[in-house]
Design goal:
single chain, mainly beta, Immunoglobulin-like, four-stranded mixed beta sheet
């Protein structure tokens, strides 16, 4: 009686975890000369099979644009990220953001929301000038350092989108350069930037003061008196603008009068004729 051959699979497992399947036909000898063998090779490792339920666990960050990665898995994404983790199993979660130190968290599957608090990297700016020795200011605030120097920004300054680096040196114009935070180089431990300025000589300003006012003014005035035949007189005086003048009228106490007879009498009015006739 003829019957179909029945193949028997014998699985041999190697110590390193790889496996192979050997199919033999009846009637084959021990050396396998009359039979054929088919070997199916397996993987060198085995995937971890979850033993518990998978639960979404939210992982957030205090910094925008942070990226969350569940270590040893293919789960990654922007924060807040909902990872599918096995309940009560411990995981390592890495959180990264530009300009911040990378942080790793211990997260258990199914726990409450986890938040990563990232710390900003130090922002250091290397400042130099030609000539050297210029005082360095950041946003008009003195740093107390002169070029060349490394300036570490404060937390408030580093949080700005950009800062002004100003250099001041006697005899030279003020140099002002803007450092954009997004243009700084991100290294493992810090953010770095560079400012190199060539100072320009300031123009010399000459101030001409007017000479002091040393001039003085003086003037003199003179007066003249004209006497009419009737004995009355008139006086006129003139004076320079900055001086003084005097006029002596004919009828004044200091003038002289001429009578119709040709006699003169100092001061007072002329003597009438009847008075003269009464005096021998």
């Amino acid at each position: 009686m003829l019957r179909e051959h029945v193949a028997e699979e014998v699985a041999n497992k190697n110590p390193d975890g790889s496996g192979s399947a050997l199919a033999t036909n009846p009637g084959s000898n021990a050396a396998g000369s009359n039979g054929s063998a088919a070997i199916a090779s397996g993987s060198n490792g085995s995937a971890t099979v979850p033993t518990g339920p998978m639960i979404e666990t939210e992982i957030a960050s205090n910094v925008a644009k942070a990226v969350v990665t569940v270590v040893d898995t293919d789960q990654t994404g922007p924060a807040p990220f909902k990872a599918k983790l096995e309940k009560d199993k411990a995981y390592k979660v890495r959180v990264q953001a530009p300009g911040y130190t990378t942080l790793e968290l211990d997260v258990n599957g199914g726990q409450d929301k986890a938040t990563a608090k990232l710390v900003a990297k130090p922002h250091v700016i290397t400042v130099s000038s030609e000539p050297a020795g210029a005082m360095i200011y950041v946003d008009n605030a003195p740093t107390g350092k002169r070029t060349p120097s490394d300036i570490e920004l404060t937390a408030a300054q580093a949080a700005k989108k950009s800062v002004h680096i100003q250099l001041r040196l006697g005899g030279y114009r003020l140099a002002d350069q803007i450092v954009d935070g997004s243009a700084m180089t991100d290294s493992d431990t810090k953010m770095t930037g560079t400012v190199a300025a060539k100072l320009v000589v300031a123009p010399v300003v000459v101030i001409h003061n007017p000479p002091p006012n040393t001039g003085s003014g003086s003037g003199s005035g003179s007066g003249s008196a004209t006497v009419t035949p009737d004995g009355s007189g008139s006086g006129a005086g003139s004076a320079l603008p900055s001086g003084t003048g005097s006029a002596t009228p004919a009828s004044g106490g200091g003038g002289s009068a001429v009578t119709p007879t040709g006699e003169s009498k100092a001061g007072g009015e002329p003597e009438p004729d009847w008075s003269k006739k009464s005096n021998p």
